[in-house]
Each structure stands twice: as structure tokens, then as C-alpha cells.
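Write out the 3D structure for:
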Amino acid sequence: MTKDETGPLRLDEAGARQLDAADPGHRHLFHVPPAEGGRHPEVAYLAGNSLGLQPRATRDELLADLDDWRRLGVEGHLEAGRPWLPYHELLTAPAARLVGALPAETVVMNSLTVNLHLLMVSFYRPAGERTRIVIEDSAFPSDSYAVRSQARFHGLDPDATVVRLKPRSGEDTLRTQDVLDFLAAEGHTVALLLLGGVNYLTGELMDIAGITAAGRAAGAVVGWDLAHAVGNVPLTLHDWDVDFAAWCSYKYLNSGPGALAGVFVHERHLGDPALPRFEGWWSTEAATRFEMTPVSRPPATVEAWQISNPPIFAMGPVRTSLELFDSVGMPALRQRSLRLTGYLERLLDEVTAGRPLTVVTPRDPARRGCQLSVRIGAGSANELTKRLRHEHGVIADAREPDIVRFAPVPLYSTYHDCWRVADALAATVEVSA
């Protein structure tokens, strides 16, 4: 963190501007919405953990794909500027680099929860006493619904099958040691461990490597929901020996609302004929796909988990985004994230003192991404975010009843954005009597 000539870090507006001049990020590559309130022309956008901003390159590149359809019709499958038949392969290598995987282990397809279900078809195999699915108690609701429905599909009682690991009494985040202790004591009953890499509510970054090793040592399959981790923190899924993972791309990957998701399956599972999978048109070898035979010949790659032909116009924005991450690089983004989030934390320390506001995200930078979650002690989280937006031009994300999430995304957020958050909170939330 830089200091001015007087020594201490300046937490005023001029200090924020000074930091932006020294550490500018890549805001110029994105469209930033206009502000509806406050004195600044653009919003301070701290909701990239819910929906990322649109890269400036997305529109032109998507229109180029549309133009190929207009001028070529069906021939675009082979003759488009980016031919449609192998289009999904353009996303494979950059997605693999982003999550620390081999290209054969990575594919972009479907949406997050659909992918989780397809993966659980293969990797949730309850048998004997090993039937339980372990998730965190504050898992995103969709994950909770998915694992409960998988338990029912196998004829099991979801209330008895799904284990929800809770933080210790009086704490907000789940300690790694508590996960390890549970696995040491109960691992013989666990068929699947499926946790969020970064918790959507608190912003806690889990020890993916340590928990994966403990889960696999206990005989469980270990999968990860990386919706809030991908594009946020560095990942090395192959080296961590993760069995499988899935993620969305509309948050930190800035690929648009409902954008296509990603899948990782470790290479040790690829080509395993004992693994059950659902199959379809795109599950068979590309070289023999148009022989139109009735029996699939799946490749020994994660593409065997594909089912349908890929939606080209949905893949375009994901490809554009992945090229951005390749250009900037996750190591540089992580370092800027640590600086930016640390700055916001210092600002919030100033504001929360004396106010009914508490940061629940871990203070250790190694245990979080770029999200800081604030619990409000009075009123509604939704009402507070509305006031921040309409009175101050600050867009944050509410999770009822009492959590407001602020995500200073290193690609496009600024130190001045962070200063505006603190300034708006100070003006909106009264000091406790």
C-alpha cells in the first residue's frame, strides 16, 4: 500500500485518486453504467460477484459472429471467421489456464447447476454406509437443492443424507480444521464432499488443496463449486487433485447474464468406462460424429460429458472474457485484488466503528477473495443497497436479511470506488446512540 509524504495512508478522496493514478487497473476495457444518484457520473460498481460488467470488446465480437450467420447460413459451421463446428475448442485452453487444468480436463458448457447434476451422475455413487453428501451450511441455495434432489433420486432421505457443516457458535465462517476433523471422524460415511471454493455469502476462501487431500484420503469424492472463485483467486485444480469442479462465468468472468458455465474433471477419471454418464450428440468423438452411428464413442477427455452442440452466440462473450484474463493474467489480478480489498477493509474499519455494521469476511487476505461482506445491525439489507444506489451511485449486492456484499473487482474497480462505498455508508448508516 502506498503512503504519501506525511507517512500514513490517506483515506480521503484525494488519497483514493492518488492510489488510482499509481495502480489504475483495466477499467477502460469495460462499460461502466451511469450513476442514478450522487455527484459522480458513473456508478461505483461493487456487485461483480453477482454480475460482472460488460467488456467493451464483447459487442463487436458477438456482432461478427452474427454477421457470419447472416452471410453464410449453414455453411458457417465450417466457413465462418470462427467456424462453429469446433468453436467450443477456442474456449478450452484459456479456461484450462484460468483454473490450473489440462485442456483435456476442461470444457465450457451448459449452466452451473446443470453441470453439477451431470457430474453427480458420474461421481455421486452411494453404496453401503458411504452415502452422505457434505456441503457447507451457507452453501448457495441452488447447490442445496441439487444435492437434496440427488439424494432423493437414489432413494435416500435428503435430511439424513445431506450433511451441512456449520461454523462454530458465534462465528461466521467455517474453519478448515473443522472440515478436517469431521472427515477424520465421519469420512467413512461420505460419498461426496461438495463445497464452495469461495463462499457466496461471507466471501471466505476455503483451503481447497488441504480439504481436497483430506477428503480423498477419507475415501470420498471431492468436488468444488467455483462460482465465486474462478476469475477471483488463483486456482490449480489439476495439481490439487480435485476430482471435479464446476463454475459459472457471469460473475467475475464478465460473460453476461446466464452465461455458459465450465467443468473440470481430473485426468485420472477421463476414459474410465466404469463411470456412468449421460450422453448426447456432442459426447462422441468429433472425428466420427457425422458417421451417424447409433452407439456413442466418447473421447478420453472431459468432452465426453458434453451432451448438446454448443450455442455459438452464448460462447462468444465467454471467449472474449477468457482472452481478457489471458492478457492480464491471474497473478497480476490477485496482487491488485489484495491491494484493493485491503484498502476497502481499512476504509470500512473507519466507518463501522460506532455504527451497527460488522465485516464478517475473514481479515486474513489469504482466506478471502475480493469480496467483503458487511452485516447490518438494523434495517433491511435490500433497503440499504437501494439507498446506496439512488442516493450515492454505489451498486452493491444484498443478501437478506442482513448481509450487504461489496466486491472491489481488480479488473475494473478503483480505489475511488472503494472510497465512495465508505463515504456512502457513513452518510447512510447513523452512528449508534
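The longest strand covers residues 190-196.
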